[in-house]
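Budget justification note: compute hours in this period were largely spent on complex prediction jobs such as the one shown. Inputs:
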Amino acid sequence: MEKKSVSVTLEHVTKRFRNVKGKADVIAVNDSDFVIEPGELVTLLGPSGCGKTTTLRMIAGFELPTEGRILIGDQDVTMLPPNKRDTATMFQSYGLFPHMTVFDNVAYGLKLRKVDKAEIKTRVDEMLNLLGLGDLGERPPSRLSGGQQQRVALARSLIVAPSVLLLDEPLSNLDALLREQMRVEIKKIQRALGITAVYVTHDRTEAMSLSDRVIVMKNGVIRQIGTPSEIYQSPDSRFVAGFVGKAAFFPVTIKGHDGEHYKADLGGKIVDVKHAAPGLGEGKAVIMARPESLRIKGKGEGSIEGRVKLNVYLGSAIESFVDTPLGEVLVEIDDPYGRKIYSEGEEVSIDFAPDRVRLLGESEE
Amino acid sequence: MFTKKKIIQFLVIALLFISAVLWIYHQLSVSFTEYADERNYREIELFADTAPSELDEDSATEWLATVSDMIPGARSAYLIYDEDLFDFVPLAGSPAILSLFESERESNAFVRALDSCYYLEPMVMSTLYTVDYSLDSDSLVSEAAPSQLYFIPVADESGAFTIGAIMIAVPDTAVSGYENLMRTLLIGATVLFLVIAFILMFTRDPMTGFLVLGLFIIVGLFVAFPIFEAIRLSFIRNGRFSLQTWKECLSPTYLQALWGSLKLGVLTATFSTLVGFLFAFLIERTSFKAKKLMTTLATMPVISPPFSLSLSIILLFGNNGLISKQILHLDASIYGLGGLVLVETIGMFPIAFMTLSGILRQIDSTVEDAALDLSATRWQAFCTVTLPLAVPGILSAWLLVFTNSLADFANPLLLSGDYRVLSTEAYMLVTGRNNLGAGSALSFLLLLPTLTAFLAQRFWVSRKSYVTVTGKPSTTLTDLTNRPVRIALETVSWLIMSFILILYVTIVAGCFVKNWGIDYTFTLANWGEALSRGWTAIRDTVTLAAIATPIAGILAMVAAMLIVRKKFPGKRLLEILIMTPYAIPGTLIGISYILAFNKPPILLVGTGAIIVINYVIRELPVGVENGIAALHQIDPAIEEAASDLGADVNTVFRTIVLPLVRPAFISSMSYTFVRSMTAVSAIIFLISARWNHLTVLIFNFSENLRFGLASVLSTVLIAIVLAVFFLMNAIVRDGKLTEKTISTR
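Corresponding output:
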């Protein structure tokens, strides 16, 4: 199973779906251009219909790009059919063969590769054991639980030792607890085998926790590529900021930059902000603040005045919903036992450190 | 995909291939011409040797006429050497040649040829002469055609002196016919090669391309081409374009037959829909006791051969029928519209029944309960809720039966009497008067209403169906509370059911009766005679149907997979071509097959292959529809997973698709088998001395009033069909695959 990891490259890939009867074409993927490094796990993240699954299906070969090239390693695979590509896909619906046993499902790829019977047996058993399916080999897939089906699908993809593993929302049909387990399991196996992997999801937690890098897409366009922390802490747009995590946006006017901080006019008060999205000049903008980077202080002490509306106790933290003239703002208070908690109805103010928030363009996009 | 380099490569390959083909064509045609000349020359020398010793005008004419036996299409004339004139003068022969001789005799070439004959040297003219064969036409040539001329001297007994010369013209058509055929084949091969090269070079999944190409070739050859030929030939009379055929077909006699077909169709459709609705309603909405029996009796007419019902109607109500004559002593005749409506209604109401019970099952009975709950009476609920919801289904059932009745051929053939319908008129034209063109024109006349009804059902009515919007559909049986209504409905349906039962019992009874209508003594003699005379037909029918069944089944599933899962240009066209045979009457298919396949390049008439092909093509639509419906149930990810793991299209089909659509696969095979075994309308044109069909034999026996034999063969046929039908059903039900897909989104 030892295999050299390969990269996946998309060069200006565009996919248009021709719409019959004179309607306009639908551009599912617009000029995607990125490289996935060998052994890397990259997540395509975005709302439904953003083109992330189409991108995955083009890498797998189920769809043909309208323009552009796709390379796996150095090989141009744009025109290769799926069966000639060294990729393995895990489908959202698993696509298990209902007329075969678990064993035959997993053995399918090996049989096609004309591996001899004895070796198939050892390799499949090995794989089933690895994924904790050891004693389920003779069952039909319909008599497995969701998590087990999911693992059979994973086993079936992994046994052919693909260079690239493609995962299309593989966890969306599982319940929350199982999802967390499988997430870790997938990550471990991917790391252990050093397979380049592309993971499609609309679940930001999944994306954050699994990926080496995240590609955020919307309406077929790549909005931002970066490590989970880059995407979370330094989004380039309100859309990305809002999609990958909870965020409050305060409209401001940028007055200038003093060499270290931007000077922003927040409802009459001038506040300092250290970071800003690239290309932002003087004029209207918003401050993006994550709930955990905001602090609640006494009335008049912070930048934005407000009143506590609701406190939600989460155990390790408390979420405080504060009514302000700029709308409802969520503040997350970590380590609630070491801090002062303002009770519901109290007049408070909200403050933030200049380096924990970020200036973004005011456009909602 | 279309890179410049590839396009240039493709063009170069195409150019090379085309020039190779042209070279081959040239070589072949030159060598064939040489060969033909040589052979003709030998034949002519042989012919010259057969000259009678005493030549006068009569014996010469007789002898000269035999030349066309040796060389097809050849004409000859005899020129006698007149020693007084020192010249050859015509004695006898074909007027076509003699007129040419008169006009050309002064030409240098002719003078030289005659001189050469004088010195006993035969002469083959170096150029072709146009001979006007209309002066002396036969089946091969009837117009002016370029011909090769031969001058053969005839010597006296000593062999030293010329006494005459034979002049022979061989029309070039033999050669040009060969050239035409070769041209067609080579062009076909070239196109095929180019398409294959194109698929290999420009598509990324050549296997799919080849499957699509294969399907296109099949439907192109066996659906589009015959219909095209039928249309073309209906416009041709005596080798020229003419509207004569159509004018004759639109004459009052045939329009009356069209009217007859329409009237029969409307009546049959109306009665069938009524009966079908009654049955469907009783089964789906009430606690009627004998639902199983009812369903079985409603299935029987679908799978039994089309003649069987007409046969038992004749046995019971015919001129010598058991009920009409022996019991009631009536003189009324069952032949004609009344009998036809009766027999077609019994035979076709199952179509309406199946459509309507499907529709009624879909209508959630809670909507009726809701109406009752809002204090409607049962009757009001029926009129205001059930009936309006079922209207699209009723229309659809009506149109389906109407289409079937128009296309029906078997029943009118036996029962129409003086009543005229188009399908049988077309048959009479073809078999009685050998007028294929008119037969096909008549079938097209029939196609118009059939196609209209089919398209209306397909694209208009079936889209209007209501979907009841509910959470969980349920079917509760709200029994008919009104006793008189219930009793009336149940009585009517019991009567109909008993009637159907009696019809089938009659057939069986007919097997054991010495001479129905005259002598009702028990006998087994019919069995011996029927089986000995029908044995080959039974064997042929079963063999051919058994060959067609798996072909149709696999072809249907492949086509369904391509249509549902693959994208390719011309998909819509392929679908239409595959579905076409479903909409057009069998008579038309049969006639168009004879027209298209009785000549090269595809000579199939008289073979078993044409029958098998016809079965496959005619039953393909239903199989494809079954396959499409089954594939829609299957998560595409299952097939994608297989291809992702390295399976090509064939492997995906073999290891994934076929096992998953097994129920649809088997049921379309059983459908194909049953329908092939009971086919009449197209098959009756395609059978030959070598390949007979059981249904046609049954028809022949019935027509010759050998009812005992017809009954035996019908019983045998029904038994075979039932056995296969239930066997296949058992296989489907036995399947381990209760769940088709295991995952849902």
